[in-house]
Amino acid sequence: MFELIRPSIQIDFVGKRFLWLGVSGVAIVLTLVLFFTKGLNYGIDFTGGAEVQIRVPVAWEIGKVRSELEKGEIKGLKVQQIGDPSEHQFLIKAQGDEGSLNLVSKKVADVLNKALQPREWEIQRVDVVGPAAGSSLRMSGYLSMLYALICILVYVTIRFDMRYSPGAVLALFHDSVITLGVFIITQKQFDLQILAALLALIGYSNNDTIIVYDRVRETIHQHPNLKIENAVNRAVNETLGRTILTSLCTFLTVFSLWMLGGKVIEDFAFTLMVGIVVGTYSSIFIASSLVITITHYYEKRAIKTKMGGGNASKKDLSFRPQPGAQA
Q1: pLDDT exceeds cutoff 90 at 138
Q2: 0.70 exceeded by pTM
Q3: How many angstroms separate the CA atoms of 269 and 319, rounded?
């Protein structure tokens, strides 16, 4: 049987957990600073803009359409093919303010009139998104991410207990922020397509974290006297092969989309690639380290309660019985 990682491997992942937490903390702070200073390069979905749907001759591929329209110096130009490829329909997106949005279709028409005969092309639809609507959509996008994290917090609390759920949500917050940081640095356009990729990453990364957490809980049940650091380290090592293989296969698939999928899904695939790398890192180094920190917090609080004359019995934080526990 092929094994990428030997089952007997023992890497001390948690030994330097404060280093990893520190590095991630610095990265998050820097990202937030860049977010409020440099900011994201928002697409027309979030800033307002115009969409023009056109039909062009069969000989015009997407590269030809883009190169011709770039001559018109249209701000924030983005071209994607829509519908059946045989119909040669393209959607042109452009940024602008209230005064210039209505001029986008005229610029497109001027460019096409210079390159084609009037009957060879057609503007089929023009939609304008005002800045106010774009701002509202941007806020809705951020709220959707917040609601997703809250739902995952509730799910992990029910699935495990209160020692695990904060770590899972903080790890997902870490993944989202770091991915946004990459977009701020590269100034790639951030639109609804990228937001959809971030929401997909939240679910993907959470699944990876749940696998590690489940093994931590099983290890604690099998070895109740084992220190939490040793239990987490053993669990991460036992799931390491699965984590690397799953992430590697997913990464190679998304990498193929990024290389061969064309301009339409290039940024979407790029977001997934960054998120897979960051999510794998956080599942191994961040989420597991946070379980240790939160467990120590509850242990210290229990000791203080006991010394203060409170209930000395150990409080069960779990909503569900531990694996193999008696009914």
Answers
A1: no
A2: yes
A3: 38
